Amino acid sequence: MGRQPCCDKLGVKKGPWTAEEDKKLINFILTNGQCCWRAVPKLAGLRRCGKSCRLRWTNYLRPDLKRGLLSETEEQLVIDLHARLGNRWSKIAARLPGRTDNEIKNHWNTHIKKKLIKMGIDPVTHEPLNKEAKTEESSSHAHHSADNHTTENDGIANSSEDNSSSPTENCSTTDDPNLLDAICNDESLLNSLWMDEPPLVDVSWTSISAGESNCNLTSLPSWEEDCAWLLDYQDFGTNDFGFDYLDDIELNTLEMGDKSVA
DNA sequence: AATGTCTCCAACCGCGCTTAG
DNA sequence: CCTAAGCGCGGTTGGAGACAT
């Protein structure tokens, strides 16, 4: 007597989303907020499974998403966090407002990985590749599973701190070096990452969209008026849409820690 | 201009944990 | 307490566009 299936495979569309589907999903979420994803397709009139809707929303349609390439600072932060956390993309993404785990994961695999290899750094262990080759035999395989945090962390935490003077830094133009340092050196913050507490979640948007706050969304054009703005927003930052207040909320959340995640 | 290859990223898949019933 | 769906996560894939020949 579990729950109902999330979708009845038959008649469920897959593949790229159309503008029309995006429109329906956005309109629905803006109107009703994020409730149970299972119900979303039906209520929004979409022939998609709830999971697909959730993914589309979180990875692409959320208004607070930044689009475009990661800045040097963001990239450096990703490298640093990856050295400590491994492939825990969602945890890493939680430290980069407006970025999704999928986006960071993609960027890692397509850009950062190659960059590190080019620099002679093993993207998995964050150790120099030469050294890696030597120690490969003596040490057990480079594992970045959750079980190995301590071992990996011990070795890497130091090396990543050295990053400030490492070759990596050469390409870092310090958009906001203080932010990077603050995050990387904040032990309590890192500890919270190790724990399973969600230290930072995008409550700002969820609460807004849930109708908890009417905020600025009320001033946004509706689909009935003009549906083009949301399809266009993908090319802009959040500021372009009056969502810049989200950053403040997010920073507060970061400091206070988030406990009201559903 | 045509064709082949590479790169990138949106979306899917499957697994593990959580939680409703 | 048990079962099975919901949910979130990380790994992987496929197709579109960019680039090379």
UniProtKB/TrEMBL annotation:
Cellular component GO terms held in the UniProt record: nucleus
Localization (cell): Nucleus
InterPro entries (UniProt xref): Homeodomain-like_sf (IPR009057), Myb_dom (IPR017930), Myb_TF_plants (IPR015495), SANT/Myb (IPR001005)
Major site of localization recorded for this protein: nucleus
Pfam families, per the entry: Myb_DNA-binding
Residue ranges of every copy of the Myb-like domain listed in the record: 9-61, 62-112
UniProt-annotated stretches for the region Disordered: 130-177
GO biological process, one term: carboxylic acid biosynthetic process
Residues covered by the HTH myb-type domain: 9-61, 62-116
Assigned keywords, A-Z: DNA-binding, Nucleus, Repeat, Transcription, Transcription regulation
Basic and acidic residues compositional bias, start-end: 130-152
Compositionally biased residues, Polar residues: 156-176
Molecular function per GO: transcription cis-regulatory region binding
This protein's name: Uncharacterized protein
Organism: Gossypium darwinii (Darwin's cotton)
